Amino acid sequence: MVAVTPQDDSRLRYAWRVCSVTSLGLVLIGIAGSTLNVALPTVVRHFHAGALESGWILLSFLLVNTASLVFFGRVADLLGRREVYLAGFALFTLASLLAGLSPTVWFLVAMRVLQAVGAAMILANGTVIITDAFPPERLSQGMGVYIGTLSVAQLAGPTLGGLIAETAGWQWIFWVNVPAGLIALGWGTLILRRMPRRPREPVDALGNVLLFAALSALLLALSEAGSGGLSSPVVLTGAAVFALLLPLIVLAERRSANPVLDLRLFAGRLLTYANLASFCNALARSALILVMALYFQAARGLDAFEAGLSVLPVPLGIGLASPIVGMLGRKVSPYALSIGGAVLSATGLGTLMLTADPQTPYWVIGIGLFVAGCGSGTFLTGNTTQVMRALPQDSLGVVNGFRVMVMNIGIVISVGLSLSVLTSSVGPGLRAQVYAGTLSELSPVAVGQLMDGFQRAYAVLFTVAVAGALLAALARPQRAVASLDSTSR
Q: Which residues form the Major facilitator superfamily (MFS) profile domain (predicted)?
C-alpha cells in the first residue's frame, strides 16, 4: 500500500476544484447549444427569418467553433492556458448578453460567431487543464466526471430550452448564460493557477487562415449535403475548395517553424487510430439522438416533449457510465476501456436495428438506447484519457484542440448523412413531413416506407460503431509497442 503524502492530498484537492471549473464550462456550452436547438422555431418566427438565415443561426456557431479549436489550442500553449480559458468565459458571456439584445437576425448570427470563439477557447483547453491538475493515476476519475457533465447538458438543455421559450421569451435562451458565465469566470479566476508557458514564438498565420478556410468549406458542404443532395452547387464548391486547400495546408505546415497543426504529432499509431475511433463514435452517437427523435415523432406520432423524454436513456447511459468508468480507470487501462465502450456502442445500435417497427415495445428500444449511451460514456472517458496521457506537455493544447475538432466534424457529418439515408426511402414531397414529425398523420403506407429508411440509418450507424471498435483496438499504447520492439531485438 502506497502512503499518501500531504503534498499528494493537496494536489488531489486542487485537482477536484479544477474539475468543478472545467465541468461548469462544459455544462454552460452544452446547455447553450441544446436549448437553442429546441427554441430555434421561436427565434425564427420573431425575426421572420428565411431558410438561409435560420440555417446560419446554428451553422455559424458550429463552423467557427470547429475551425478555430486547433488555433486556440496553439494560442493557449504559447500565451497560457489559464488566461485563454478565462478569456473564453468572458467572451462567451458577453456574446450571450448581446445576442439577447439582437435587433436583426444577422446581428444575432454575428453574436453566435463570438459565442463560438469563446466556446473554442474553453473547449480547446478544458481537457488540458484537467490533465495537468490530476496525478496520472487519478486522471481517469477526473476525466470521467468531466465527460459525465456532457449528459447533464443533454438532459437539461432541451427541456430547459422549451420551457424558457414558452414562458420567458427567446431572449432568455441567451441571457440565462450570463449569470452562469459570470459565476464560471469568477470561480475559475479564484481556483485556477497559472500554468507554465512555452517560450514566445510567432503564430502560424498562414496555417491558421488555410486551416480555417478548408474546414469552413468542408463543414458547409457537409451541412448542405443532407438537404441539397450531393449534386448541390454548395456541396460541390465546398468539396472542391477543401480538396484544393488540403495539399496547401500540408505544404505550409511542413515549412512553418511553428505550425498550428504539427503533422508530426499525428504520425504515431496511437493518435491516428484513437482520433479516428473518436470520430466514428461521435458520428454514431450524435446521429442516434437525432434519428430516434424523428422516429418517435414521424413514425409514432409523439410530440417534441414526449420524444425528448423517449431518448433520455442515451444521456442517462453516458452520465452513469462516465464517472463509474473513471473510478475503474485506476485498475483498468484506458485502452481496454476504449475498446469496451466502442463494443457496447455497437451492441446498443445492433439492438436498435431490430426495432425499426412502430409496434416495437418501448422497453426494447430503451435498452438499446441505454446500452449505446453507456458505451459512449465508457469510450469517451477511456479514449480521452488514453490520448492525453500519451502526449508531451508542450503539445497538449494543440492536440486536444485537434481531438475536439475531429469529434465536431463527426457530429456535422452525422446530421447530413443520417438525414440523407433516412429520407431516401420516401419521395421528395414527403420529406418535409418527416422533418416536421407529422408523417404518421398521413398514411400507414408512408410510415412503412419510412421504416425502411430507419432500418438503413440504424445499419449505417451500426457499421460506423463497429468501425470505431476496430480502430480503438488498433490504437495500442505506445509503451506497449516500444516494449514489443525491444523484445524482438
A: 18-480
